[in-house]
Amino acid sequence: MILATGVATATQRLPLLSARALPFLYLRGDLSYHYPHPHSMEKCDVGIENTLGVVRPATEEHAEEAMEALKAGKVIAVPTDTLYGFACDACSLQAVNRIYEIKGRKHTSPLAICVGDVSDIKRFAITDHLPHGLLDSLLPGPVTVILRRGESSILERSLNPGLDTIGVRVPDCNFIRVVARGSGSALALTSANLSGQPSSVCIKDFENQWQHCALVYDGGVLPSGRAGSTIVDLTGPGKFKILRPGSAKEETIAILESHSLLEEATVT
Predict the structure, then answer these.
(1) Do 226 and 118 touch, CB atoms closer than 8 A?
(2) pTM of this prediction?
């Protein structure tokens, strides 16, 4: 529970982030990971006394409430392994439209989806052309993989209409993964900020948008900076293209190249 002062104890405020979330870990020459720093325990001073009653700790005991809100077509705010995001049921057109309204974003800008486990990705996108073990090497982690939906995707066609690709995330953050698993659907996910404004690493960064969310989950100050996830296009067999460097470009390229993928030249 949040204390009356709006500041929780260190135990209560510990976000459900696993070790791999610590700024994506830097990669050594043997492709093993090394943990550079402990997770930031810096508190995010909410400022107002949670007068809207929507703020909850991002802990597993509060996940059920988040699942119910998503099933009811609501928008919630959650921490990930990179930034805070707005999330909703990706198969609810009403909820997806609500996210666009909250962000002030054009419907021509696509939304990514978030799933609980790497094994879920094949329900929503084509993965047969990828080298064995590639997705498990990249994810969970601060990477968005762009894949083709394909005819077998269970995603609603109303999500990102006109596009045959979808960005997929499996954040290295236990809370959002638990929520995604329990929701029974993929989550539409986008950064928790007004379109064109700086991204959020603390719930105070987007407190003007709290009123539009059914619930806001506080995972403290996220340690990865504001670069967001690395976006990589994996739609073509044997190749990749980095669409956004994000917070883990070098590590991502190293993993892709270790699976014999070649980088496709970016057209400038």
Answers:
(1) no
(2) 0.82
